[in-house]
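quick one
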Amino acid sequence: MNKTATPTTQVFPDSAAASQALAMEVVALIKSREAQGLPTVLGLATGGTPIQFYEALRKLHSAGEISFRTVTTFNLDEYLGLDRADPHSYWQFMHEQLFDHVDILPDNIHVPDGTIADSELEAYCRSYESSIVEAGGIDLQILGIGTNGHIGFNEPGAARDSRTRVVDLCEKTRNDNAVHFTEEQQVPTRAISMGCATILDAKRIALMAWGERKAATVQSALHGPITPELPASFLQEHPDTTYYLDKGSAGGS
Ligand code: F6R
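structure w/ fructose -6-phosphate:
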């Protein structure tokens, strides 16, 4: 893919306003596809960043503004070794934040399974990719960004053409995510993650970032060289990406 468009940025007064705006974009997308008799495929992220976004979607659903019955979701990643029942699993996170509160059909939910045996992982990752293609591809991919520039768990060094696979988590990512874990249960060392190419195949991408601590990374991702050392920089080559920023994360851009 050649560089066709620099991502656009939308800067909001705060993360709540940005999350609400992105939730409204999702509602508009689902409604417009529904009106054409089409399902909607969403790629979803976990972590601290999208919490207000999921809260906004829950509220819009309970206000009768939106149904998820025509929606299929694919999550970006899951820690390897965590059972779905584990409170730290992204399966649990997604059910607590969104799925348990809306009318999405359980069969339409896809979160990588962190309990797959090593011998089966390669085939499992290939089947995750096939399921996305069979669903018609991702209409809108929601992303956060790591302080090291990762998207999904595509850590620095990840190839532009990478697909869903097992990844080793960087020390920095494990430190950043340690706040969600306890002394006894440490951050896993590996995860299953969609690849950079999987993400870039999405028709549209919306990346959220909040706070000054992400500002330098956002600045480099938007305007720095396109390099595997900062996987979010690959988004410069995507034709339809918007960064949803608050004042803090937009500081340097
Ligand atoms: C999560 C994910 C990660 C996070 C990133 C930022 O599914 O794919 O790329 O978006 O690590 O995490 P937070 O939002 O906790 O700062």
